[in-house]
Each structure stands twice: as structure tokens, then as C-alpha cells.
Amino acid sequence: MAPSQRDEELQQLMKTPVVKSKKGFGEGGLDASTWLSAKGNFQRVDGAPNAEDGSSSSSKRFCPEEEANWFSMAYFLYCDGLIKAGKAKHLEQHDLWDIAREDDASGVYARFNKHLQSTVVPGTAPKVRARRPGARRATRAPTWATKMITNIYEKSLRVTSAVKSELGVGAIVNLQSNDASKIWNIPLYLHIVWNGPFQIFVVMALLVRIMGWAPAMAGLAVTVVMIPLSTLVGKSLGTARRAMVKQTDARVKLATEIITGIKAIKLYAWEKPYEERIHQLREQELVHIRYTQMLSMLNTAVFQSGPVLVSLAAFGVHSAMGYSLTAAVAFPALALFNLLRFPIIIHAAMQPCGKVVTWWQHASPLFEYSSGTQLDCSQHGSSAWPWAVLQSYFYEAAKPSVHQPPRPAAVLVCPYGATLSIQGGPAHLQMLVKLVTANASKC
Do 361 and 245 touch, CB atoms closer than 8 A? Predict the structure, then answer.
């Protein structure tokens, strides 16, 4: 639009009065919505962007996953273009598409926060008693870490000073870096917990059919003895990891205090005492780390020897009872023992019982942190009136003067007592905003 046309349009807009009637602003004149929707000069923003849809849309945004049908999603056909491009050349950053809106951090956290807020008991005071925000309403496991990290960050901006002083910066940092990142692993370990014993039971039933009750029960007895042993080692691992996390929190907290007060430490030459304290905490942490690794190695050694011990027990009892070890018995039994090897080894390698205990140790601080007391935002004032953003406009035609300022280029209608903030613009006055309140008009 040419400057002359814009000036004429502004002059016509400024001649239109702003009238307040019994129903509010707008009748007989120009209301705030019309002022704020003037061509290309202003933009009206009613609150924050829609967080359910993720980040704000852009004309350059591209994500084929959002437009893929169910067949393409099932067979990942929407990735064909990227695969062909990777076959033809080395992929660069600009070759990758944007993340889907449903997987965007803002959208993922918005859905999580919606369910989290639904657990709050209504009708209570600022100190809200809430049901424990478990993972029963969570969606896909890969988004758990994103939800937890965003929730911790949002909560850290709203917790009271008492909660911050009780936890410390080190504990909050550990919640984001360690605890939240381990949450998404739990579905895999949970499936192994129930699937492993089920496979063992089926294989042992087939062994009973082939070898008889006594040899199969001998192998089953060895297996049953090993399962509670894993639980015992898992509990020991949980206790060791709790002690290790406490030492880690203390070390990170001290390191944060040193970084915060580095000027005072340098001024009074306290580098050596603080260095000794850091080394002392680190040595204590390493002691717990070594103990935890020893327990992990013990658990792995016991279960990796499990299939061998089961086979020795079963074949030993079978031979002791006077049965002949024929090919019709030995080879199917060995095949079944090989099938039995997988659930036992997978229990040894992944240690699902220990992983579940570890997950609970990481999840419990998150639950306690999410249930902590936070600031009541209503105590600091709130406003239901829409924000008005003046976007990239300067009244070029006006020649402002201190003694004779130009007429206002815009009219904002807002409640009486509201605070108006205009940010940006040149040093000299090139734009005036007429503020119309509910009781009076002020320039």
C-alpha cells in the first residue's frame, strides 16, 4: 500500500468516534476489534497460541506424517521421499521435515497438562490436594521424557521458595537430566516382566511332556530359585541407587553454589577448601557407583549361568532315574532349553525387576515434585481482556512535535486501571495510541 493511501485510510479511521453504550463499546462508532483489525497495521491476539496444535504454523512448514493416511502410517510410506533423497545424496539439516504437531513439545505437554490438571481435586484452597499423577493417561512412551522434562521446567518457575530451598538446584537438574530420561524405558521392561515367566512356564510344560515330571521339575526348581534371587538383587540395586542419587544431588548442589558464588570464592581465596569438598563428595559417589556395578555384575552372572544349570539339573535327574537319553529326548529337550535360554538371558541382560525398581526410584521424586506446593497465580492478578499487539507500524506521514503532537493512529479499549505497554519503535515519538478506559478517555 502506498504511503498516501495509507494516510488517507488512517485519517478516515481517526475521524470515526469511539462510543460507549450500555452494551459496551462499539455501537454508533468503531469498536476495539475493528480498530485492531485495520488492514495490515495491527494484529489482535486473544491469549497464547493454541498449544493443542503445537507451535504456530508457518507457510514453509512441511511434515508428510501429518497428511499420511492409515495405510501410509502403518507401512511408513510417507518416508519414501526421504529415503530416496538419502539414496541420491548425503542428507543435510534442511532436507529433514519438521516434527509433527502432535509430537511437538508444546502440543505434547499441553495434552499431558490437561490430564494432569484433571486430577486436581476441585473446590479446595491454593494448597491443592491432588490425586497422584500417574502414567495411566499417558499416550505413547517416546513422549514421556518430553512431558516430564517440560513439566519439571514449568513447575520450577512456579514452585514456592520453600520447595526450592528444600530441593535445591541440584535435585531439580537431576530430575530433568536423569529421572525424566529413564521414564520412557519402563514399557519395555514391564512387558519382559510378565512375558519372561510366561515363556518359561510354557517351555517347562513341554519339557514335562518329553522328559517326564521329575527331570522337568528339577529344571523348573533351578529356574524358580533364580527368579527370587533376581528380585533380591533388584532390591539391593534400588537401595544402592537411592544412596548414589543422594550423593549426586549433593555434588551437583555444591557445584551450583560454587558457580553462583564464584566471585566471593575468588575474592576470599576459598578455591582449595571447595575443591576438597567437591573431591570428597565425588569419592563418596564413586563408592556407591562401584557397589551398584558389582550388584549388576552379580545379577548378570547368575542369570547367564541359568540355562546351563537348568540343563545340568534336568539331564542329571533324567539319567539318575535310569531313563535312556535317546535322540528323541535329547534334541527336543535341547531345543526347548534353547527356547528357555532367551527369557532367562533377557532377564539377566536387561534385569527387568531391577529396572522396574530403578524406574520407581526415578518416578517417585517426579511424583513428589509435581505434587509440591506452587504459587497461586491468582494472587498476582489476572486479566481476561485480550492483548493487543501493535505490529510493525510507524506513522510516517506525521511530523511529531512536542508542542503539537499528531492525532492518535489507533484506539485501544481496555478496562479501567489496566497497564498498557508499548515496546519497540524509534527514539522519537512517531506513533500515539489513544487509550479509552471504561470510565474516561486519556491520551
Answer: yes
Q: Which residue is associated with the grid cell 492478578?
A: 381
Contact by Cβ (8 Å): 18, 413: yes
For 300-340, the pLDDT digits (tens) are 777 677 777 878 888 889 888 888 888 888 888 878 877 87
Residue 107 has phi, psi (to 5 degrees) of: -70, -40
Query: CA torsion sign, 418 to 421 to 427 to 429?
Result: negative
53-62 pLDDT tens trace: 444 444 456 7
C-alpha pair distances (Å), 154 with each of 265, 288, 311, 375: 32, 32, 55, 12
Contact 249, 174 (CB under 8 A): yes
Cα 53 from Cα 354, distance rounded (Å): 38
The sign of the CA dihedral 399, 402, 406, 410 is positive
Q: Is the pLDDT of residue 30 over 60?
A: no
Structural fold of domain 175-370: ABC transporter transmembrane region fold (1.20.1560)
Ordered by start, the domain boundaries in the chain are: 3-47+386-442, 64-97, 175-370
Query: 20-21 and 433-436 as β-strands: parallel, antiparallel, unpaired?
Result: unpaired
pTM of the model: 0.38
